[in-house]
Amino acid sequence: GEIIFAGDGVVENFSADDAQIAFNLNSKTFSWAQIKPVLQFLQGSENEIETPLANIDIEKFSLQAKLPLTALTQVKRLQKELNAQVEFTSANALIKMDDQSYRIETLQGEGGLEQGILAHQFSGTAFGSAFNLKGQLPLNQKNPLLKTQINFEGLQAAQLPIPSNKGWHPSEGTLSGDLTLAIPIIEDKPFANLKAAYNFQAQNLKLQNKNSPPLFFDQLDGNGDIESRHLNYKVKGQSFNGSFHSEGAVNLPASGQPRLN
């Protein structure tokens, strides 16, 4: 379907070689399926954009843009020289990672496009926690890499989408921390080459497993990284049995979730 905009614009130095066109636009509601062809055009690729974002409905969208007038008839130049600022609010955001789906309750943000680099800064709520993220995506590269950092605070551990019948899972406690991601987006399986680094702090955490007594942690701190489905981790914490420390590595499965036993 089409995306409908309304607004105004102005042309500067119309008869000059460096004539510029600037415009301010607002749109009606549109979906992620309608956005993807636009991103594909800006990137100049024949391949469909592949990202972990499976769905999002944009409820409010505003765009301010400026570009050389002659670029309107030169696609390659338009892709490189279009400068734009956007703001939006949205609903029904859904992230898919392998065979798992994660819903984001609210999401709003702003972004800027300059010299083919799409910078973004979002905030929202998910899993009972407020979060914010910022990063960038180079649209004018053959193999673009989406880089973003997510910060979260007070996340309710019991709301994490971890099945209660598959090993250890949290039933109480809160999590805070940050996650840095680098994701190749023009690939059949972008998460196979995912790179990530993380830090977290957990308070009053309770872990349960139907085959074992529950575990309680007054405090649990950890950090590590992920590359090519290989997870390195370091964890330390306090429980009623005293302090402990652990570090190691885990090979993540190609689908599904790793299982703690």
Task: Describe the overall structure.
The protein is mainly β and 261 residues long. Helices cover 7% and strands 62% of the residues. It has two helices and 15 strands. The protein has a 15-stranded antiparallel β-sheet that branches. It starts with a strand and ends in a 10-residue tail after the last strand.
Keywords:
mainly beta, 62% strand, 2 helices, 7% helix, 261 residues, elongated
Summarize the structure.
With 261 residues, this protein is mainly beta. The protein is built from 2 helices and 15 strands.
Write the layout of secondary structure elements.
Elements: E1 5-12, E2 20-27, E3 30-31, H1 32-43, E4 53-68, H2 75-81, E5 83-97, E6 100-104, E7 106-114, E8 117-126, E9 129-138, E10 145-156, E11 169-184, E12 195-209, E13 212-227, E14 230-239, E15 242-251
Antiparallel strand pairs: 1-2, 2-4, 3-4, 4-5, 5-6, 5-7, 7-8, 8-9, 9-10, 10-11, 11-12, 12-13, 13-14, 14-15
Question: What fraction of residues sit in β-strands?
Answer: over 45%
Query: Poorly predicted ranges (pLDDT <50, ≥5 residues)?
Result: none
Return the string of H and E elements. Answer: EEEHEHEEEEEEEEEEE
Please tally the β strands and state the result.
15
Question: What's the total helix number?
Answer: 2
> What structural class results from the helix and strand content?
mainly beta
